[in-house]
Amino acid sequence: MRLLFIVNSSASSVTARGRVVIQKALAADHDVTLAETSRRGHATRLAQGAANVGVEVVAVLGGDGTLNEAANGLAGTETALAVLPGGSTNVFARTMGLPNDPIEATGDLLGALARGAVEPVGLGSVNGRYFLFHVGLGFDAEVVRQVERRSALKRYAGHPLFVYAGFTSWFRHYDRSRPRFAVHHEDGSVVDDGRFALVLNTNPYTYLGNRPLQVAPEATLERGLASLTLRTLALPTFATVIVSVLGTGHRARAHRLVDYRSDVGGLRVVGHGPFPYQVDGDFLGETSELHLRHERDILRLVRP
Predict the structure, then answer these.
(1) pTM higher than 0.90
(2) Is residue 260 left, alpha or beta, with left meaning phi > 0 and alpha meaning psi from -120 to 50?
């Protein structure tokens, strides 16, 4: 099998030794070409090039941002995406059930390739960009922005950096006093006082250490999107939501100041002025309007 092995060497848990070990393991049974990313968006172009010349599988060793780029290059093609965890959190790889250690995960990947375990899966799209697991709007995106401002620390600080960014965003960087956007649903209903929203293609939303944050159990690669919108960021409500998603998330989804929906085909978010957003853990800036949709069976994925 022809396989392109894309590596983001600057990702948090990628090492030179690990890359060599994984490449040798993949090359034992497959025709492997190595390509290293050098800039933002590079993985998209590498994946597109591989699909154009008929490569069967693109395996990606990197963080969730690199995986997102590769998925955007492969969506709608016959070339499959294979996932290896190389970042600080590895939300998508862990959601698929892979070990968080990239060398251990390589064994699972090789087994899946040997079985031919490739399936079409659905993705979300936001303003034409695909996402694997979620889009965060408002406060969530501000936290990611603060983490990226300290990106040199991600390799060493990891999850403590996200906790720190959450506190600084809460107290200094995000205006919690007013609604930031309105969420327009396909049934005509509008949630016009959104302060924090998540649109999810998979569950969990993320991980805090080894603890999954369970926001939308209905969100799977085989079903539509799920959306959760907080209508307030008052501390009692926010604390209730955080504590809940550390467990089953039921109280968060049922809270009277939370709008939760599953099997969503699409929605539109209109800002009361610019608001921040992030896609699969990458901060993409501020915008005034987003169009989100579920795209069924758009990506071929190697399933361990």
Answers:
(1) yes
(2) beta
